[in-house]
Amino acid sequence: MNESFNYIIASSDFINASFDYKNKACIYRLVSDKRNFVSKGKEVCNRKKGSFLLNNLSSFAEAS
Prior knowledge:
Elements: H1 2-34, E1 41-46, E2 49-54, H2 57-63
Antiparallel strand pairs: 1-2
């Protein structure tokens, strides 16, 4: 019983680490979008700065 519980905890830690990575990638995308790396964006609030969030990822891939 304890071994399976430890395995679940280890799996849970991996999922949390992956989730943190996705959040960091999203923040990076907001910063790079503000520098006009996107063709189509939507203004979003990023603390006190205006930033742009990509609406259509496929248009960004085509523009690259």
